[in-house]
Amino acid sequence: MVRLVRSFVQSILKLVNSVMAMVGLAMILYAVWMISVWQRHTGELPFGGSDYPAPWFIYTFLGLGITLCVITCLGHIAAETANGCCLFLYMFIVFLLLMLEAAVTVDVFLNHDWEEGLSLLLAMILKALGPHRYDDSDDDYSPETAPLLKNAVHPPSYVVGDPAYGSRK
After folding, report:
1. For the chain, what are the domain ranges?
2. Which of 91, 94, 113, 154 is the most exposed place for a label (fewest CB within 10 A)?
3. Cα 28 from Cα 32, distance rounded (Å)
4. In whole angstroms, what separates CA 7 from the centre of its chain?
5. Which residues cross the membrane (predicted)?
């Protein structure tokens, strides 16, 4: 009886991992298709050295597809070997991903200012990853090529008044 249950659980785990692997491969193929469409429209690949903004959606979709394929590969190994360590690592990764998904879902539904919070979080991540202020490497870039580093141009101030009479002196 124990062998039958174990075989059934292994088969179900393999089936679920096969479906997840197909979804991961579909995500990778869709990202490759989006890269080809990007290249067709812009004339260049979306990897470094482009004058266009980075296509973060394509990168994210490709990264998620690769991550999903790696996780399903670990799941197939865990299902085939029935190794306790492998199964624990697989279940731990799946649990972390489910908790992350649940946290994002709860935040979106309960927090009405989730867009502001998300943009602040992304801004903090970009600030942490980006070039730091007063770093020696900041001088390597001219202000025209890197306007966000320093020398920000402020719009001219304007006066609200009656333009028909002008100013009094």
Report:
1. 1-82, 85-131
2. 154
3. 6
4. 37
5. 12-36, 56-75, 87-110
